[in-house]
Amino acid sequence: MNRNHTRRLGVVATVLVLFFSTISFKADFFEIAKQLEIFTTLFKELNLNYVDETNPAELMDTAINAMLEDLDPYTHYWNEQEVQAARINNAGEYTGIGATVGIRNNKITIIEPYQDYPADKAGLKAGDEIIKIGDVTVADFTEDAGELLKGAPNSRVELTYNRQGEIKKTVLTRGAIEIKAVPFYKLIGDNTGYIVLSQFNRNASAETVQAFRELKEQGAEKIILDLRGNPGGLLSEAINVANIFIPEGELITSTKSAVEKYNQTFFTTRKAIDSEIPLAVLINGRSASASEIVAGALQDLDRAVVIGARSFGKGLVQRPKDLTYGTQLKVTISRYYTPSGRCIQALDYQNRDEEGNAIRFSQEDYNEFKTRNGRKVYDGGGISPDIKLETSEYSSITNAILQQNSIFDYATDYYYSHDLSSPEALDLSQTDFNDFKKFLASTDFDYQTFTEKQLSELKKAAALEGFDDEIAQDYKEIEKTIQTSKQQAIEDKKEEIISLLSDEIIKRYFYKEGLYKYYVENNPEIRKARTVLNDPAEYNKILQ
Fold this sequence. Notes:
Blueprint: H1 3-49, H2 56-69, E1 76-78, H3 80-91, E2 93-96, E3 99-104, E4 107-113, H4 118-121, E5 129-133, E6 136-137, E7 156-163, E8 166-173, E9 175-178, E10 184-188, E11 192-196, H5 204-217, E12 222-226, H6 235-243, E13 251-256, E14 264-267, E15 279-283, H7 290-300, E16 305-308, E17 316-322, E18 328-337, E19 347-352, E20 358-360, E21 368-370, E22 376-378, E23 387-388, H8 396-403, H9 406-415, H10 430-442, H11 450-465, H12 468-492, H13 494-522, H14 524-533, H15 536-543
Parallel strand pairs: 11-12, 12-15, 15-16, 16-23
Antiparallel strand pairs: 1-18, 2-9, 3-4, 4-5, 5-6, 5-7, 7-8, 10-11, 13-14, 13-18, 17-18, 19-20, 21-22
Keywords: Hydrolase, Protease, Serine protease
Protein name: Carboxyl-terminal processing protease
GO molecular function: endopeptidase activity; serine-type peptidase activity
């Protein structure tokens, strides 16, 4: 075959590829344009002709959110306020009152006032319910009432709040609030450094480096990096934090997508500060995203012993896309993979159960991978620690108690009825635990077990087939047994619940810093990490 003929064949092949790829693109483009035209005409006719007055903005928000709801929970439409809030969170500073707040029963509840910031100086406490901001009643405000707490630096605002049934007022001056990525670090004992990394904002790696260097100057020869409860943040900061302990040129994570340009690999780019110091990493079920990238890389490269409970399992990567009028689409663009090749995403959003919930990957579907030293690790459900501790894992009953804010509300009542001289002075007894159980009963606490859900479906099926009368008595007996078992489950998880109660109560008196100081002497995960780090043979055995 001569060279000219070969060249002509190459040109024809290229033209065919371009032709078919253009056809595919045009087909997709036509379908998108068609659907947009249908939606636009429907939206116009609805607003012009509906029997009652409509709110176009609310209708559009509903339509957008309903469309995104069918994807994953991390793909969001952000209005202008939410875009600004995301920038604040990543920047690590903002202007406000200096407190974590939550919306409960049309009231803004103070979750945690930050020590020495405006809310704390004005006397606000966790559990206070803000009912008016200036002249605006929170319950009557249809937008995000929390936005009213923000304002220009040094601006003053009057707050009316409910504390334990008593209405109070205070005036505070808004100020610059710094959100620390590393809220606490300390040398424990003679030579173990303890660093809490609470989020991956833009300051995360710089603050971690500073803490690490100071601890080494103080004599730290071992490090505990606490990622428990860290929800993640910036991918770039996760790479930089891993780079503190991992040499230059090592793969930390890779991303894979249906869009070619999002297929990327991320390596360490600088010389490690210390690639040899013994390292333990603490994780739990609330360690997610960037936390899992760091923990997964350190585990895959056999650089640290991971201790605690299986992490959350968020293996999806999002990127903000600017839209018009200052809004954004935060869209999932890819999945990330640890150096060994595992994706730790725990939920399959493309496959859902009858109630529309994403299906969790089952253990039978996990795939095996190998760390650098040949240790077995698995994908499909978060980062599984090298050392699992029951104290790190929350049972279903404990999760239900947390979700209904029972721990938080009991701690609020406890604070106003008890004196506490120091964190170490807190020693919750069986009497206190019984008091908490009475508190649960008084708030009508209840949760539905998986067995109850199945029984409910059985009851519906029996009614359809006409068997409901025949099984009614059996159903009541089973239900009674389940209720007894649920009460026993609370007793069985006494230590777990008391630990959470202690944490929340200590924060009320001594802030987060007091809680961390209590942790370093009393927390079982930290004690276990110290034990492993102080036993080189055990440490090396785990990693080899």
